[in-house]
UniProtKB/TrEMBL annotation:
Keyword Transcription attributed: no
Top-level taxon of origin: Bacteria
E.C. no: 1.20.4.1
Similarity field: Belongs to the ArsC family.
Lineage: Bacteria, Pseudomonadati, Pseudomonadota, Alphaproteobacteria, Acetobacterales
Protein name listed in UniProt: Arsenate reductase
Amino acid sequence: MSDVTIWHNPSCGTSRKVLAMIRAAGVEPRIVEYLRTPPDRAALAATIAAAGLTPRQVLRAKEARHAELGLGDPALPQDALLEAMLAHPILIERPFVIAPGGTRLCRPAERVREILPGA
């Protein structure tokens, strides 16, 4: 089993680019299509924290659901944003990569190089 995991959305160009960069580095990652197999609360919270981010920072504001749910309100607590991402995984920004060198939200895609083995 690979020691690199990508939370991947095959419809996302950045996610596809990061996956290709991981493979070009000679690593075949564990691919989690998080829209089909969403993380649970503990995994989502831990991954966000490991990346040094907050739920607000990984909330995908470009999604229509973001506006529909009024998630742009700065008064909303971080926990409410986490709950929204759990209920609607499309709101999770992508791709997250978990590797021996750490956890990153790979936007821009080149951030993946910071954490790949041998990098």
